[in-house]
Amino acid sequence: MIKDLLRRQRIETPSWAYGNSGTRFKVFAQQGVPRDPYEKLADAAQVHAFTGIAPTVALHIPWDRVDDYAALARHARDLGVAVGAINSNVFQDDDYKLGSVTHPDPVVRRKALGHLLECVDIMDATGSDTLKLWFSDGTNYPGQDDIRARQDRLAEALAAVYERLGDDQRFLLEYKLFEPAFYVTDVPDWGTAYAHCLKLGDKAQVVVDTGHHAPGTNIEFIVAFLLREGKLGGFDFNSRFYADDDLMVGAADPFQLFRIMFEVIGGGGYGPHVAFMLDQCHNIEPKVPGQIRSVMNVQEATAKALLVDREALAAAQRAGDVLGANAALMDAYNTDVRPLLGELREEMGLDPDPMAAYARSGYFEKIAAERVGGAQAGWGA
Ligand code: LRH
Ligand code: MN
Prior knowledge:
By secondary structure, this protein is of the alpha/beta class. It has 14 helices and ten strands.
């Protein structure tokens, strides 16, 4: 029963996690880093090959711009993976200094909307059904711009994108408390994203990036609430100690990840209608193993959450047995699920230890030798 559910798990890795990334202080280049989206897909296919549960790859435009997106999607299929969500990028063009779709100047707003609509064209070409929208839009000083007017502009752009979506397509609106804006962020929290999506309709849902909240935020409450409303479209999984650190999911707070997956499973979110995407940067650690470890962290949290004795939990909750109810969760969380997952991988025809198997595969040595010259992929910021 649990193994069947775990076998059906689907985690999407981000193309940009395979490229160089860093902070404003330094981007440390690494050996063997891809030079183009084709090589990024090859690395992502390795993660799927060793975990068995990472069959799709999110793309980011223009970081993954190619002449022929249908050919790129075919290349993915040849590698045993598929193109997943298409991520727009209206946060790196000089014109967007004061905003993109919320910019005071209608010319800039039209340019930004043009990019969002181009991303839907790319979805048509790659067969993707999901557009992920994150806006860095915001202001740095009180009075810099009109908060309400910017919401009007945002709503106008979202409505235009919504109109363009095909019947089987949707967009996920991502919120973030701050950065790069440091006074107002135009989509700062789940409530703002939810309100905009509610007005538009079923094809508009909210994505929860686990690094985008104020310290101390109870993210699993947001998850439970959005699931109840049918508005949880997906996750950008990562972890953090301080801000949007984009560290490996589960690395900083594995208990939080467990609590989130517990609410996902209890709220009917463990299925294809919720996108479990990773959004991370491996600034100092090797990238393909970093992704494999991250997929395993989500898998372990999911296995533990599936082990919760929900009948015992419900009985304790009904009885007001606070400690009994808490124990039902903690017993599952404190269960070592690694032997179970090792067995599952063997039953899936995989090595029980993906990290060791990848290290033995020689793939890193191969790409380090092959990928010499050319420009390594990165954020191009
Ligand atoms: C913004 C964000 C967004 C992506 C970017 C790579 O912080 O989380 O999801 O577009 O990271
Ligand atoms: Mn994100």
